[in-house]
Amino acid sequence: MAGARAAIRYAKAVLSLASDRKTAEVVNNDLKLIANTLAESKDLSEVLQSPVIPSSIKKATLLEVFKNSNKTTLSLIDTLVTNNRIDILGHVASKYNQLFDESKGIEVATVTTAIALTADLKKKVLAKAKALTGKEVEVENIIDESILGGFILRIGDVQYNASVANQLNKLKREFTLN
């Protein structure tokens, strides 16, 4: 992934600056909003990636869309525009969120399901993930209908695949080997 190392460096620098200013949590919320907006808005992502659109227009667009952001967040946008790295804003935002969670001892558990998790099920997953890790855990639900049913739980580098699609693939491999 192009710019991944640069994104980590920018994220670390912003986290350090925000921590010094005691605005790390506010900046985290701003950058979560930015990451989600860029993930959901194909048009905005394309504007940032386009080499044809001048940096001044990219900056003006971002400052208008995220005008209620913290001063530190706005200075990150300004720095990325100045350094011609605005195309990695989404990566920087994601890395910052990850680093912020790590600094607070929060682990993110990603649960992929075919349908949205109910509040009760989310509580159960949260309790189980907390028991497994011994840390505070946030649950992120990803909906992927291709898994048919069941779930895929990912905490850090560990993944537990209890999806129907995975079970069917195992059966298919067993039958083709015999």
UniProtKB/TrEMBL annotation:
<protein>
    <recommendedName>
        <fullName>ATP synthase subunit delta</fullName>
    </recommendedName>
</protein>
<keyword id="KW-1003">Cell membrane</keyword>
<dbReference type="InterPro" id="IPR000711">
    <property type="entry name" value="ATPase_OSCP/dsu"/>
</dbReference>
<comment type="similarity">
    <text>Belongs to the ATPase delta chain family.</text>
</comment>
<keyword id="KW-0406">Ion transport</keyword>
<keyword id="KW-0375">Hydrogen ion transport</keyword>
<keyword id="KW-0472">Membrane</keyword>
<comment type="function">
    <text>F(1)F(0) ATP synthase produces ATP from ADP in the presence of a proton or sodium gradient. F-type ATPases consist of two structural domains, F(1) containing the extramembraneous catalytic core and F(0) containing the membrane proton channel, linked together by a central stalk and a peripheral stalk. During catalysis, ATP synthesis in the catalytic domain of F(1) is coupled via a rotary mechanism of the central stalk subunits to proton translocation.</text>
</comment>
<dbReference type="InterPro" id="IPR026015">
    <property type="entry name" value="ATP_synth_OSCP/delta_N_sf"/>
</dbReference>
<keyword id="KW-0066">ATP synthesis</keyword>
<dbReference type="InterPro" id="IPR020781">
    <property type="entry name" value="ATPase_OSCP/d_CS"/>
</dbReference>
<dbReference type="Pfam" id="PF00213">
    <property type="entry name" value="OSCP"/>
</dbReference>
<keyword id="KW-0813">Transport</keyword>
<keyword id="KW-0139">CF(1)</keyword>
<comment type="function">
    <text>This protein is part of the stalk that links CF(0) to CF(1). It either transmits conformational changes from CF(0) to CF(1) or is implicated in proton conduction.</text>
</comment>
